[in-house]
Amino acid sequence: MMKPQTLFLLLLLTALQLAAQDTTFGLFRQKEYYFSSSFKLNWYKAVEYCRSRGMFLLSVRNAEERAAVIEYLDSTGYTKTHKGLIAWISANDLGEEGEFHWASTGERVNYQNWSETEPNDYKIDDCNGEDCAILEYWSEGGANYNYTFNDRFCGREYLFICETLPA
Ligand SMILES: [Ca+2]
Ligand SMILES: [Ca+2]
Predict the structure, then answer these.
(1) Furthest-apart CA pair in the chain: how many Å?
(2) Which ligand places an atom closest to the C-alpha of 101?
(3) Which residues form the C-type lectin domain (predicted)?
(4) What is the Å distance from ligand 1's center to 100 Cα?
């Protein structure tokens, strides 16, 4: 029969090992974020503003990066005092209609995290469709507006999120 102290030590060691193995979280935590919770800019100015802080307009390239930014946004308390959230991210199809890329990394947008029926390139007028993406959350919107993407007119002013990118 094992002594209680020995058993306790074994359990503690196992717990420590499990904690050490959980590195996925640490990896995407390498990003730092900035959320402009109090002022709005158009998409181009949001890109410039992030660069002026040594950061980039947000990219959300996979489920892990989405989870990380949601955790960050939750930590700001913004969604506790607001019913929803709309913020510019760096996805855009300015270069070629329908071909979305992240301005921050140059990568193609492969992560299928669009709100239903988006991107729809909705025509504002005869000249302008929607070429820049927002991250949208609506507390009463269910899965469809749950930190998903939507293309909007780049000249509109919204809040925005900056990030650092791991080297
Ligand atoms: Ca478009
Ligand atoms: Ca749209």
Answers:
(1) 81
(2) 1
(3) 28-163
(4) 8
pLDDT (tens digit, 9 = 90+) per residue, 74-100?
999 998 999 999 999 999 999 999 999
pTM: 0.81
Q: What is the CA(160)–ligand 2 centre distance, in A?
A: 17
Q: Is 92:109 a contact under the CB 8 Å cutoff?
A: no
Task: Indicate which ligand has the atom closest to the C-alpha of 151.
Answer: 2
- Please provide the CATH number assigned to the domain covering 33-163: 3.10.100.10
- Name the nearest CA neighbour of 132 among 118, 147, 117, 150: 150
Smallest-distance ligand from the CA of 118: 2
78 C-alpha to ligand 2 centroid (Å): 23
